[in-house]
Automatic annotation (TrEMBL):
InterPro entries for this protein: ADH-like_C, ADH_N_2, ER, GroES-like_sf, MDR_fam, NAD(P)-bd_dom_sf
Cited PANTHER family: PROSTAGLANDIN REDUCTASE (PTHR43205), PROSTAGLANDIN REDUCTASE 1 (PTHR43205:SF7)
Protein name, per record: NADP-dependent oxidoreductase
Record has Oxidoreductase as a keyword: yes
Source organism of this protein record: Streptomyces atratus
UniProt KW Translocase keyword: no
């Protein structure tokens, strides 16, 4: 079988030479274990930090020579456990590999009939739901701004705000095609291209009453503009800072100037989502319900080409080439 390992820690722009595709023996399951075929890999912009030796994430970065990690869904192809049968759909954290093995309890079973496709289990919804519902507590009457709204988290966060009763949801993105996508397909009330003039001007035009919730995936200028355009007492859920994740360790995560935010009584709420069973269950329940009620769209791209396509897919994701969530089909 094949797996993808880290060839070198990232110090500049990400390229496919950061990864090695390595052939290794297919593992054999021991007593109580299962052999799982990886069907789909999920990709995330958070992987950018995991590729760095000086990662600022609250989990250890990947080491050179280590298999790239991350979530996936797969199928049990051999079982030495009464807990799982051949053919069962499971979640796996084994990472970028064609097959993996381990104790059955490390592979939570999934309902194959709950969603239209197994890739729905790879959405970044737990992060979006936790941040929008539990951190920002968006609800009836809120005016919500989502930065990086066409990405995997943002495209879900905006829809979650709408489902929770927000009065207006505004998104920022990097092209006219993505703006049209947010408004025409995902139901955002308005969207703008952050390249097209000062962000603050857009926010003042689209939300003259002031934004009350900001779900920030980007940081930088968009955070500063959101502070200026916020209503007193607004809640800011800080999910990421993609605009600043370049350069040296100190430059990638500059501390935001919170003086203006404090003066307006803005609650600045950085958060991390650890995909606990409770967080995943809460998202899965609401996601499946909203889909069945036709209140929600799952924005996603499936990259073909097998495991060897994963490195380039991640490079393309970080360049903004996709809309919504991105997964790689590993098994043909």
């Amino acid at each position: 079988m094949w797996e993808v390992r880290l060839a070198k820690h990232l110090k500049a722009d990400l390229g496919t030479d950061t990864f090695d595709l390595v052939q290794v023996p297919t593992p054999e399951p021991a007593a109580g274990e299962v052999l799982v075929r990886t069907d789909y890999l999920g990709l995330s912009v958070a992987y950018l930090e995991m590729l760095r030796a000086d990662s600022r994430l609250p989990i250890p970065p990947w080491e050179v020579g280590q298999r790239i990690g991350g979530g996936a869904v797969g199928t049990v192809v051999r079982s030495n456990s009464a807990e799982l049968a051949v053919g069962d759909l499971v979640r796996t954290m084994a990472g970028w590999c064609e097959y993996s093995t381990g104790p059955a309890d490390q592979y939570p079973g999934l309902d194959p009939d709950l969603f239209p496709s197994p890739v729905h289990y790879l959405s970044q919804g737990p992060t979006a739901y936790y941040g929008m519902s539990e951190v920002a507590k968006a609800g009836a009457g809120d005016v919500v701004f989502v930065s990086g709204a066409a990405g995997g988290v943002g495209s879900l966060a905006g829809q979650i705000a709408t489902c929770r009763g927000a009065a207006k949801v505004i998104g920022s993105a990097g092209s006219q095609a993505k703006i049209d996508y947010l408004v025409d397909e995902l139901g955002f009330d308005a969207a703008f291209d952050y390249h097209d003039g000062p962000v603050l001007d857009h926010l003042r035009e689209l939300a003259p009453e002031g934004i009350t919730v900001f779900f920030d995936n980007v940081g930088g200028e968009q955070f500063d503009a959101a502070v200026e355009a916020a209503a007193p007492g607004a809640r800011f859920a800080l999910c990421g800072a993609l605009a600043t994740q370049i350069g040296d360790h100190e430059d990638r995560f500059p501390e935001p100037d919170l003086t203006a935010a404090a003066a307006k009584g803005i609650a600045v709420l950085p958060f991390s989502t650890y995909h606990t069973p409770e967080q995943v269950a809460a998202w899965t329940e609401h996601f499946s319900t909203w889909l069945s009620e036709d209140r929600f769209v799952f924005p996603h791209t499936i990259v073909e080409g097998g495991l060897s396509a994963a490195p380039q897919a991640l490079v393309s994701l970080l360049k903004g080439s996709f809309k919504g969530n991105v997964s790689v089909r590993v098994a043909s």
